[in-house]
């Protein structure tokens, strides 16, 4: 049983309270041409809104998903998002009976996965022009998107947002339109969100086709614990360490294929080329990394970490 299943069974999590609108910013084509990249981003956003209608059309009135898409998805994804929230708000306001499927639904839960994947391609301490276009250009799609999200926050609209990313770039630096975010990575109650717990790993190893015997399961668990465990995202707090999700999944997949890999040579843990270029060009980042490598204890203390930073900080 996964931890989330246990939380549902124990009443800590109540499913069915939100309509989920998910955006994956890594899916957009990040061309070096900013305008071409924004066109791809616009297409990704609209595609996600179409998926939302296809999923929830039976609950949003009498229109079919095709009708909802045809009438409410516009060339501009920002307009599409605004109209999508209006459609949901209208449907929720129309609920009158307790047996209505939407009774108890609070609104839209917006998920933005890898929110920085798109704009990180244009980060460069040596040439800030592409970044400035995304951040301060009046016609910037990224700026318009987050400004719109902020404008439609509220009851029976976008009720909650959850945003994930790798680099803690200030949302205010990215766009002055969204300055209401709270940093939650270090919250104790979310300590297991950024990885897998021991229970999660054991549950995966116990699935059919992964391990043949108890001894084999224990052997592979030890390998994974020695190589992929030890992450802690909670400042000044003792919580169970978690396993790196990507490396665990790659190792588990190799077990399913019956082709075990070198546990220290998984390929899903490399730093991206743009990130390496940014770090190499940044005097601040280079100094921190150099000091850490020279230290007998290469761990970077929590008080040296920041919850967000601006491009000028590099």
From TrEMBL:
- One of the Pfam families matching this protein, by short name: AAA-ATPase_like
Judging by the UniProt lineage, the source's domain of life is: Eukaryota
Domain AAA-ATPase-like, by residue range, is 14-173
Per its UniProt record, what InterPro entries does this chain match?
AAA-ATPase-like_dom
PANTHER family xrefs: AAA-ATPASE-LIKE DOMAIN-CONTAINING PROTEIN, CONSERVED PROTEIN, WITH A WEAK D-GALACTARATE DEHYDRATASE/ALTRONATE HYDROLASE DOMAIN
Name of this chain's protein: AAA-ATPase-like domain-containing protein
- Annotated organism of origin: Entomortierella chlamydospora
């Amino acid at each position: 049983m996964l931890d989330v299943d246990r939380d549902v069974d124990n009443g800590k999590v109540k499913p069915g309270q939100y309509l989920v609108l998910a955006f994956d910013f890594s899916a957009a084509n990040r061309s070096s041409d900013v305008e071409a990249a924004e066109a791809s981003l616009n297409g990704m956003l609209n595609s996600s809104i179409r998926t939302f209608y296809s999923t929830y059309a039976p609950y949003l009135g009498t229109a079919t998903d095709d009708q909802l898409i045809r009438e409410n998805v516009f060339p501009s994804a920002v307009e599409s998002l605004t109209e999508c929230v209006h459609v949901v708000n209208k449907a929720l306001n129309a609920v009158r009976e307790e047996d209505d499927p939407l009774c108890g639904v609070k609104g839209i839960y917006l998920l933005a996965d890898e929110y920085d994947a798109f704009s990180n391609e244009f980060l460069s301490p040596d040439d800030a022009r592409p970044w400035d276009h995304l951040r301060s250009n009046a016609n910037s799609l990224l700026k318009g998107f987050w400004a719109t999200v902020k404008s439609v926050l509220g009851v029976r609209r976008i009720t909650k947002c959850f945003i994930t990313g790798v680099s803690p770039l200030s949302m205010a630096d990215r766009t002055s339109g969204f300055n209401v975010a709270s940093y939650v990575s270090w919250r104790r109650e979310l300590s297991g969100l950024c990885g897998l717990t021991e229970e999660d790993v054991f549950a995966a190893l116990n699935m059919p086709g992964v391990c043949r015997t108890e001894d084999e399961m224990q052997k592979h668990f030890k390998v994974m614990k020695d190589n992929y465990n030890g992450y802690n995202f909670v400042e000044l707090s003792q919580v169970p360490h978690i396993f790196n999700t990507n490396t665990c999944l790659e190792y588990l997949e190799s077990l399913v294929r019956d082709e075990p890999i070198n546990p220290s040579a998984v390929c899903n843990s490399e730093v991206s080329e743009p990130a390496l270029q940014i770090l190499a060009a940044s005097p601040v980042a280079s100094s921190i990394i150099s000091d850490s490598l020279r230290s007998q204890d290469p761990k970077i203390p929590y008080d040296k970490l920041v919850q967000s930073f601006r491009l000028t900080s590099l």
